[in-house]
Design goal:
38% of the residues lie in helices and 17% in strands. The chain has 14 helices and 17 strands. The strands form five sheets. It has a seven-stranded mixed beta sheet, with helices on both faces. It has a four-stranded antiparallel beta sheet with strand order 13-14-17-16, with helices on one face. It is globular. The protein has helices spanning 4-8, 36-48, 59-78, 93-103, 126-135, 152-158, 181-190, 210-213, 238-241, 278-294, 296-315, 344-353, 366-372, 388-404, and strands at residues 17-18, 21-22, 24-25, 87-90, 113-117, 138-142, 163-169, 194-198, 217-221, 232-236, 254-257, 262-264, 320-322, 332-337, 356-357, 359-361, 377-381. The chain is an alpha/beta fold. A hairpin with a 2-residue loop joins strand 1 (17-18) and strand 2 (21-22). Bound molecules: pyridoxal-5'-phosphate. The site of pyridoxal-5'-phosphate has 12 residues, from helix 4.
Length: 406
């Protein structure tokens, strides 16, 4: 499947009309659309396989368990993890980060330090603030430079023997900037710190090899990679996951329970209390099949072409400012109109009238907006089913909005 029209045919929603115009969906960084194989997998599960996993001796339960564990292996191979039990099913990136931060409550002390960056999604800021408040650990951050990239000189300065964890995103959802994650991991490891990579925006676009990166944790959401909402993944190195406490207790995650004390199950079940999103976790495997079928190489190349084209065209419009214009980029472009008093939402509303879905506002990244002294940006973000014709429509739409708002 290397033909865009063939790929588009897998996504029924792309035929939707919005405000009497054909939908042009450029809000993929918020959530991607889902191919038929994923939609069908969810329906098929409930139609013919529905049973609770890991508990039943009966046939359906065993088949549902097998299907979900097959999906876990697909995730493992997709990110090149060493073991399937290093893949924890979560309900999304936010859930995965909270799992780690809560799990570290018994590990961090007041001598320890956590480093995040100014370029993070709120879900990679707030859990660390909560953790550091509880453990009295120190929270530090890598500042953002004017060009939209991280201040790596400052990173060298704040990294020290007390740094226990560095938590940064691989690709920024707000600006589309690719961070020098290999460099960050290597430097952190020199000080014995663990690194958690928020891969919510990299996993849909880049080939990820967690072992080659040597990431200690790598987390992402299913719904931004053509999979269902309510699914996500926490990858962690076995020996590190074993040091974390589970923060949700309940069924499925125990080895033995008495009225006084319980012992926990082995990985991955220790962190998967309660009935999981079985249908979703299975369908996540179908999303991975889709991406493999199209090919990560093809996805990456096609999206890079769209980005370059959109960036070239937008750069010629003197009425707009593009953020992190020259930084390494994946997935998204963020911009604003120069004209005073024009808000990103004004632009978004006009584009919506033309059937073009973009995101406006702070993108769950208020610190980045504060850093640039703006309330928000207009963000166009791409997936493999987007076309150059759609970019042309976006450019036309932006020019139309400039006229309207003048
Ligand atoms: C979307 C996103 C999150 C949060 O993901 P959820 O699916 O909402 O849990 C975290 N970090 C980044 C970079 C994101 O893009």
């Amino acid at each position: 499947m290397k033909n865009i029209q063939e790929i588009r045919a897998q996504f029924p929603i792309l035929n939707t009309m919005v405000n009497q115009k054909p939908l042009i969906y450029l809000d993929n960084a918020a959530t991607s659309q889902k191919p038929l194989s994923v939609l069908n997998a969810i329906g098929d599960y409930y139609k013919s396989l529905n049973a609770n996993v890991h508990r039943g001796i009966h046939t359906l339960s065993q088949e549902a368990t097998t299907a979900m564990e097959e999906s876990r292996k697909k995730v493992q191979h997709f990110i090149h993890a060493a073991h399937a039990h290093e893949i924890i099913f979560t309900y999304g990136t936010t859930d995965a980060i909270n799992l780690i931060s809560r799990g570290l409550e018994g590990v961090l002390t007041s001598n320890d330090e956590v480093i995040i960056s100014e370029l993070e999604h709120h879900s990679n800021i707030v859990p660390w603030q909560m953790l550091c408040e509880k453990t009295q650990s120190k929270l530090r951050y890598i500042p953002l430079l004017d060009n939209g990239t991280l201040d790596m000189e400052e990173f060298d300065k704040i990294l020290n023997e007390n740094t226990k964890l560095v938590a940064v995103n691989h690709v920024s959802n707000a600006l589309g900037v690719i961070n020098p994650i290999e460099d960050i991991i290597n430097k952190a490891h020199q000080f014995g710190a663990w690194v958690m990579v928020d891969g919510a925006q990299s996993i849909p676009h880049l080939q990820i090899d967690v072992q080659q990166l040597n990431a200690d944790f790598y987390v992402f959401s299913g719904h931004k990679m053509y999979g269902p909402t309510g699914t996500g993944v926490l990858y962690g190195k076995e020996e590190i996951l074993n040091q974390l406490n589970p923060y949700r207790g309940g069924g499925e995650m125990i080895h033995t329970v008495s009225m006084e004390k319980s012992t926990y199950a082995d990985l991955p079940f220790k962190f998967e209390a309660g009935t999981p999103h079985i249908a979703g976790n299975i369908a996540l495997g179908n999303a991975i099949d889709f991406m493999n079928e199209v090919g990560m190489e093809f996805i990456h190349t096609h999206e890079q072409e769209l980005l370059k084209y959109a960036l070239d065209e937008l750069s010629q419009i003197k009425e707009i400012e593009i953020y992190a214009k020259h930084a390494p980029r994946s997935g998204a472009i963020s911009f604003n109109f120069n004209k005073k008093g024009v808000h990103s939402s004004d632009v978004g509303m006009i584009l919506d009238k033309l059937g073009i879905a973009v995101r406006t506002g702070h993108h769950c990244c208020q610190p980045i907006m504060s850093r640039f002294g703006i309330p928000g940006t207009v963000r166009a973000s791409f997936a493999v089913y987007n076309t150059t014709e759609e970019v042309d429509e976006l450019i036309k739409g932006v020019k139309f909005a400039i006229q309207m708002l003048n």
